[in-house]
Amino acid sequence: MRIEIVVFDGFDDLDAFGPHEVFSHASHRLDGWSSTLVGVDAPGTVTSAHGVVLTVSEVLGEPDLVVVPGGGWFTPGAGARAVADRGVLPQRVADLSDRGTIVASVCTGAMILAAAGLTAGRPAVTHPSAIDALEASGALVRRDARVVDDGSLVTGGGVTSGIDLALHLIAREADPETACTVAAHMVYPPQIDLETSAPA
User: Fold this and answer.
1) Is the pTM of this model over 0.70?
2) Which residues constitute the domain of residue 35?
């Protein structure tokens, strides 16, 4: 499974790095799995919400799973708000969804998916600060959920839920044992039941 996590100026650090670390650990245990941080539409440098300057050499391609972080939704001209308003990433994500890519978000990354039209009429969650905005976009908000799985659309709540989202997807797409092994290696107690994420 090729996983691409999209980073952009103002992305929240843990929204991207948390899932990336989880998926990277899994890639050492699962054949064919990889996790890459990618840019929206060009290689270059991006600066996170907390000042980390990151060089990305690849741009969003055609992964099996794309993860969209949040950050800066309530800061005009920065972060997820700027990315949603610009429209390039929402369109790319919508196109990928149409082609069968699993689309996931962490925190206010769900608002970018809302801008793509992917959350309307579907269960989803985001950071508590943006819950009302997500609901206003037409999503069927699950306010108390940490991870909401609607098949091809998987959303995580605030910040640290990205770790649980990644563990959930490993359990769902591979097996709960690998997800539990990764969680133990990271000394992270999962906040969700990984056994219920098992493939059908």
Assistant:
1) yes
2) 2-103+159-197
